[in-house]
Amino acid sequence: MVADRFQECWVENGQGAQPATEIEIAQAFRVAYEANVGTIYRYIYLRVGNREEAEDLTAQVFTKSLQGTDWARDAATIRRWLLQVARTTVADHWRSFYRLRTTSLDGLLDDGWEGPTDVENTLDDLVQTQDEVSDILAQLPARYREVLQYRFLHNYSIRETAQQLGMTEANVKIVQLRALKRAEELSNRSDERGRAHRRG
Amino acid sequence: MDNNRKPFDLTEPSDAREQQMAVALEAYIADLRAGRRPSIPDGITPEDIGAFQMAAQMHARATPKDAVPDAGFVANLGARLAAQLEGNATIPRAIMNGRLAAVPAASDEPNESAVQPKPERRSPPQKAAKPSRRAILTGGLAAAAGIAAGVTGGVLIDREMRPEGDWTTALVTKNVGDWLLIAHVGDLAPGTVKRFVTPSLTLNLIHRSDGSFKALSAACTHMGCLVSWNATQQTFDCPCHNGRFDVQGNALPNQPINYRRLPEIGVKVEGDEIYVWAPTAAASASNATPATGASPTSGTYRGDGGES
Question: What are the contacts of A40-45 at 24+ separation with CB within 8 A?
Fold first, then answer.
C-alpha cells in the first residue's frame, strides 16, 4: 500500500526524525516542483531549442525522479539532483536519434551509460553561460562566425545571408553546417578542459 | 592562392552526403523558427548530431521568451505529478474507454432536458473553435490532472485540506481569457442548470429563480472529475469519490474529503446572450485558438446533454 511505503521516509523537522506522512511528502514535492520547474525547463529549452521537446523532457525529468527523490531535502541539493537528471535526460534524447543496436561498449554508451566518472559534477558544469557561446564564436574562422551571426543573431534567412556574403544559398547551408559542427567541437573541448582543470 | 577564385567558394569542396546533411540541418532550423517540433533525419551519426545540437542552442539563445515555460503546462504537469504521488489508483474502465462524458447522471435523470441548446444563430463565429476531444472528456485543464492520474472509485481517503492555492483554482483565475458566448437566455428555464463544454473548461450554468445567472467550474476540486447537477437534492455530485457541493459551489459539510469550493466562472448577460469568462486554453492542452479583439467571441458551444 502506498501509505506503508511512505512510512519508511523520514523527515527532519528540527525535533528529531519523524515518519513522513503522505501529506508532508506531497507538500514537500509541491514546494520543490514550483521552485525548480522553471529552472529545469529553461535548462532543457536552452539545449533543444523548442517548446514541445522542452515540455516533454521536463515532464520526463519530474516523472522519473518523482518516487525516488527525497523531496524534503534542502533546496540546493534538490536543484543539483534535478539538474543531473535533466542532463542525462537531454543526453538520452539526443542519443535516441542514432541509437546503435550493438551489445558492445558502444551500445552501452548509446543506451545512456555515461562511463565511469571520478568527478562529481558541480552546478557550474551543468549550467552553461551566455559567455561560452560568445567565446566559441570568437574562436571560429571569420566566415563561419559571420554566417552564424547573420543567421542566429540577426535572424537573416538563407537568402539574405547569401546576398550579404556574396555566396550561393547552397554554399550558405554548407558553411552553416560546417560552422555549427566546428562550434560544437570547440564547445566539447572547452567542457573537457574545464573538467580537467577542476579535477587537477 | 588562386586569384581567379570567385568572391566566396568553399575552401573545401562538398560531397553529396554533406549537401544532404546541410539541407536536413536547414530544415531542422526552419522547424525551430516556425515553432514546430523539429525532425532529425534518419541515418544521422554521432558525428553529425553536434551541428544540430549547436543549432538548437543558438536558436534557444536567440529566443529568450520561449525559455520561460507556459503557465498552463506548468500547472497541468504539477497537478498530474501531485496526483500520482498521492494515489496509486487504477483508472476505471469507463474512463479509459473515453466514456466519462456520458458517465455523469445526466443520461439517467428522468427529468433531463431533452432539448439541446440551439446553435448560435447570430453572426458566424470568427474562428470555429471546437472543443478538443480531451477537453470534452476531462472538463478542461484542471480535470485532465485527475483523469491522467486515475481515480480511486469508492475508497474513502482521510486527508486534510489541500494547501492554499491548489492548481484547480489557479487555473481558472490566473489565466488570460476572454468572454465566450455560450448560450441564450431562452436555452434554460429559471431554476435549472445546464453543463457546457468550452475548449478550456467545462462549466455548469445556473439560471436562478430570480432570473440571474451563475457559472461554476464543473471540475471537482478534488481530482477534476466532472460533477453533475442533482436536481432532487439541489447539489452538484461527483461520481469519483461521492463529493457533493451546494448550488453556491460550497462543499457540503461532514464529508470524508475536505473539498475546496467549486471556482466561480464570470458570467455576463447582454440582451439575451450569456457570456462566460473562459481562460485561453494552452496550446498544448486543447485545439482552441484564443479570442482576439475587444468584442466577445461568438463561438458555438454545445451543451452536452444538460440537466435540470
Answer: A40/A82, A40/A83, A40/A86, A41/B67, A41/B68, A41/B69, A41/B74, A42/B67, A42/B68, A42/B69, A43/A83, A43/A86, A43/A126, A43/A127, A44/A86, A44/A89, A44/A90, A45/B60, A45/B66, A45/B67, A45/B69
CA-closest candidate to residue B54, choices B33, B29, B36, B34? B29
Count of Cβ atoms closer than 10 Å to residue A11 Cβ:
16
C-alpha closest to that of A181 among B41, B16, B49, B11 = B49
Half-sphere exposure of B18 (CA within 13 A, CB side): 16
Tell me if B85 and A29 make a contact (CB, 8 A cut-off).
yes
Using CA atoms, how far apart are residues B231 and B192, in angstroms rounded to an integer?
8
- From chain A, pick out residues whose CB is under 8 angstroms from the CB of B76: none
Alpha-carbon radius of gyration of chain A: 22
pLDDT tens string B208-252: 988 889 999 988 888 777 888 888 889 999 877 788 999 999 999
- CB distance A136 to A179 below 8 Å: no
Mean pLDDT per 10-residue run, chain B (308 residues)? 54 91 97 95 88 96 94 94 69 34 33 40 43 43 36 28 36 60 88 82 88 89 83 88 90 87 88 84 38 37 39
Give A152's contacts (C-beta < 8 A, 6+ positions apart).
B58, B59, B61, B62
Q: Which amino acid is at B240?
A: C
Full-model pTM: 0.52
Residue A134 confidence class, pLDDT cut points 50, 70, 90: confident
* CA–CA distance, B251 with B235 (Å, rounded to integer): 9
Contacts of A67 in chain B (CB under 8 A): 85
* pLDDT tens digits along A144-159: 999 999 999 999 999 9
Q: Answer for the pair B278, B289: CB distance below 8 angstroms, yes or no.
A: no
| A/B interface, count of CB pairs below 8 Å | 168
Longest dimension (CA), chain A: 73
For B26, the closest of A42, A62, A176 (CB atoms) is A176
Distance CA A114, CA B181 (A): 56
Residue B70 burial (10 A CB sphere; 0-12, 13-18, 19+): middle
Contact A171 B8 (CB under 8 A): yes
CA B63/CA A123 separation, integer angstroms: 24
> In angstroms, rounded to a whole number, what is the distance separating the alpha carbons of residues B266 and B178?
10
Asked whether the ipTM of the predicted complex exceeds the cut of 0.85, the reply is: no
Note the pLDDT tens digit of each residue in A11-64: 333 343 444 677 788 889 999 999 999 999 999 999 999 999 999 999 999 999
| Chain A: closest CA distance from residue B149 (Å) | 12
Among B287, B156, B273, B263, residue whose Cα is nearest residue B213: B273
